[in-house]
Write a structure and sequence with these properties.
By secondary structure, the chain is α+β, with helices and mostly antiparallel strands. Strands 1-2-3-4 form a four-stranded antiparallel β-sheet. A hairpin with a 2-residue loop joins strand 2 and strand 3. It starts with a helix and ends in an 11-residue tail after the last helix.
Length: 240
Amino acid sequence: MSGVKRAVVVGVVLCASLIGCSQEKKPEPVPLPRTTVSNAVDLETDKAAVTQAFTAYREALLAKNGKAAAALLTADSLAYYARLKKLALSAPEAELRRVQLSEQLAVLFLRLRVRADDLRRWSPTELGIDSVENDQSSTGAKVSRMSTGAVDVSGDTASVLMKLDGKETGFSFSFWRESGHWKFRMLPLLESGENSMRAIVQERHLTNRTFIDRTLAARYPDPAAIALAWRPLDSQLHRG
């Protein structure tokens, strides 16, 4: 996969699936509607259902439909949002500096964009909903260029080869069948994003600290705001 295409994937993950938080509380998501996957009896039916899940998730991102997107996430994907919430509320700088680069940035962006009281109140699902609905990046343009390539199914796991502008990229999205539904699993995509960041660190001979600091400064030019973001939200009482 080329560097440009990988950068597109990383942008989709970090901008559409992780960050963007507003100050408005969102309602609980509607139950996931049943699909034909619950009655899948053969491989072709499974492949069609996985394709349906991929298309539904893509359309939810394009429409900024947070409820629909969150309903299509695996349990471990939602657990990732729970981890981000916990880190954002309570992790001091020394602890945060030890986690993965992608997690550091996701947590710092949360702290820079969301009020402490809102984050305390939100469930992991609500955080996922808000992330999609309040994304301010160019994610829509990127996601609109994506389409479904070859689908591979093995038991309750599946992968969808991503096409970009109609061309195969060699990169796959992961799906798991949970309670009779095919759902999108974010973690492999997050791992790819982390690997891309670490490759940049290595290629440019940067330290992790320098990479994080430069990325923050490019997005938020106010040094005081960045310094405050390294403090746990639970300690920022005036932001609640």
